[in-house]
Amino acid sequence: MSTKNTVQDPDKEAMDPKENSAETQAKNTDKESVETQEELSPEEQLQARITELEEELKAEKDQKLRLYADFENHRKRTAKERVELFGSANQELMSALLPIIDDFKRALSNLKNEEDQEGISLIFNKFENTLKQKGLKPMESTIGKEFNVDTMEAITRIPAPSEDMKGKVVDEIEQGFHLGTKIIRYARVVVGE
Q1: Which of 105, 127, 131, 167 could form a disulfide with 136 if both were Cys (CB 3.0 to 4.6 A apart)?
Q2: Mean of all residue pLDDT scores within the chain
């Protein structure tokens, strides 16, 4: 038995046949372009090189334009998100304060002493104006209006006191509120059947 030891050149590593064919094609293409350039006159070679460089420049410009457009879209989207965030940042706090507004209104309607009513009314008005400055707006009264699912929540239905009140709001249990353009509490109403 004879054994052969083969020494492999480190520059020539075992190649995948696909890689070898790709490398061969690249070499052939380079040879063809060199042969083509040798066959062309210097003016034609310069014109070919100019055309090649113009195509590269066009591709680079296109890439830069796309990158710029992506950046502009990102900038506009983040600016819009920031505006929406600022607009609704107080939403949780405002929602927590709505029951206090309801309590103030109930207290004002049940006070008998005019001095107490006047003092609480001043505090309530100041509180309400502060919330309005922060973007909280009460909805208009819904009593007597057609029931609207987009702005109202029906708590219950009762027989209509008159024929013209069928399908309309008979009583408003809680007033609805907007924060900016967003509804943060729907008006809770009683609807006539």
Answers
A1: 131
A2: 83
Look up residue 172 and give its DSSP letter.
Answer: E
Q: Residue 182: its pLDDT value, please?
A: 86
Per the document, the length of the chain is 193
Closest CA to 144 of 176, 126, 168, 161: 168
Q: Tell me which of 3 and 139 has the higher pLDDT.
A: 139
Quote the pTM value. Answer: 0.55
For residue 68, CA distances in Å to 2, 57, 59, 96 come to 68, 16, 14, 43
For residue 156, the one-letter residue type is T
Handedness of CA 49, 55, 59, 61 (dihedral sign): positive
Which range among 83-87, 100-104, 127-131 shows the weakest confidence by mean pLDDT?
83-87
Contacts 24+ apart (CB under 8 A), 179-184: 179/87, 179/88, 179/90, 179/91, 179/94, 179/135, 179/136, 179/137, 180/87, 180/88, 180/135, 181/87, 182/87, 182/88, 182/91, 183/139, 183/151, 184/91, 184/94, 184/95, 184/98, 184/136
